[in-house]
Design brief:
By secondary structure, the protein is mainly β. Helices cover 0% and strands 14% of the residues. It is built from no helices and 5 strands. It has strands at residues 3-6, 26-30, 53-55, 79-81, 103-105. It has a 5-stranded parallel beta sheet, with no helix packed on it. The radius of gyration is 13 Å and the shape is globular.
Length: 127
Amino acid sequence: MDTYSDIHNCNIQHVHANAFRYLRNLRFLYMYDNKISFLPEGVFNHTETALSRLDLSMNNLTVNSTSGSLFRNGQQLFELLLANNRLVEIEESLFETITELMYLDVSSNMLRRLPRSLVHQHYLVAM
């Protein structure tokens, strides 16, 4: 059974590394409009086989929050929303393990450039 979690606008500031450990079938995760500035390494590794939509918009995420270590194998992640954060750079390694991404929103950040690894996102239809 697929799991849906909507924890938006909850004033969340910190996410524990094991926060989603037992939600292996987590398919949709909405964490937008919080105060999250950092995501621990591997925080989504336990949800990797099911997570298809992740909304982290309207937080305080910075470049250190977007490392490739967030997803060990994000093959089914189709939609990644990172709009309205404090991103100035996205690490190249973030998209190395996300192979099926169709929609990426990085609007309203302070990005200087986009990662070259986005070129390998053959399914990406909107950005």
